[in-house]
Known about the structure:
Strand 1 (2-3), helix 1 and strand 2 form a beta-alpha-beta unit. The two termini are 33 Å apart. The protein has helices spanning 9-20, 40-44, 65-77, 93-103, 110-119, 131-134, 158-173, and strands spanning 2-3, 31-32. The longest helix has 16 residues, at 158-173. The protein has a two-stranded parallel ribbon. It has seven helices and two strands. The protein folds into two domains: 2-44, no CATH class; 65-173, no CATH class. The protein is mainly alpha-helical. It is 40% helix and 2% strand.
Amino acid sequence: MSIKNSMKQEDIQKALEAIGKGGITVNGDLVLEKHVEHEVGNVEAGGIGIQIISGEKDAPLTISDKDIKKAIEELLEAKDENGKFIMHDFDQWYAVFRVLSQFCGYPTKAKDFETTMKNIGADEFRLPCRYENFRKVTLHKLPQNVSLWKQYVNSADQYSLKQLCVAIKLMEILHIE
């Protein structure tokens, strides 16, 4: 949706208030354009960008696909204190899926995530990303919010722990707190 300068300032303000209250759903980008003749520095810098985020979802980080690929490659080579790979099962892609979808704006549907991973070359990794291997993973002991997983390190069952370790390591690599 693009709001042109022909809109009145009060209409723009009403639209922004409605968005803030959850009265309007915006799919895609909401772009407000304002052309200013005498603000040369502002115009040369490309204008002003405003990102409106409401609700409790974390703002997605802007990390390039190239950097995500490097982070996953590093994750796949990471080993625990016993010299074993942290990510050793195909179903651990679930943890990667959850971290990237929550924090980096990657697809929230597993099949779409698999397609995105194929596009960056994850189907050629030591453990290729395959939808069939992680689509049925359910973690009864861990909350939906991945940022809360760290507090379960000492109480998670073995099944959840292997997901937890991958998620924590990937967040560490990507510098996600």
